[in-house]
């Protein structure tokens, strides 16, 4: 998840990336604990875990604000980062994890990883489709804006004549 906006060797950036990962993991873990508590009939503890999980998300967002500054982002950049991340997951990360799970004979993990590979590939394709549609729309809008500018120039030329 290295931020392209900072020196990747910076210890502060590495710490922010680790903190983001930790806060994100805590968020999901606490949501899972809430689910378990609710299944066991303990609504109060479930709500306590969910409240803390909400705070963990805000902590993670704070780290992302520093790693991916809003003034350097755009929807297209966000989509490109998402495509790269999902592609990494289905081409490198999960296949490597799968290899280890097969070697260890952990069939449940292999099945889960196979599902994740398929989903990551699907997500990458979805993001690519959105990015392609956005590019087409922006290209069309650019032509419309060019016509507007030309029209205004013609009106100005007539007024100046």
TrEMBL record:
<dbReference type="InterPro" id="IPR009078">
    <property type="entry name" value="Ferritin-like_SF"/>
</dbReference>
<protein>
    <submittedName>
        <fullName>Rubrerythrin family protein</fullName>
    </submittedName>
</protein>
<dbReference type="InterPro" id="IPR009040">
    <property type="entry name" value="Ferritin-like_diiron"/>
</dbReference>
<dbReference type="InterPro" id="IPR052753">
    <property type="entry name" value="Rbr2/Nigerythrin"/>
</dbReference>
<dbReference type="Pfam" id="PF02915">
    <property type="entry name" value="Rubrerythrin"/>
</dbReference>
<feature type="domain" description="Ferritin-like diiron">
    <location>
        <begin position="6"/>
        <end position="138"/>
    </location>
</feature>
<dbReference type="InterPro" id="IPR003251">
    <property type="entry name" value="Rr_diiron-bd_dom"/>
</dbReference>
<dbReference type="InterPro" id="IPR012347">
    <property type="entry name" value="Ferritin-like"/>
</dbReference>
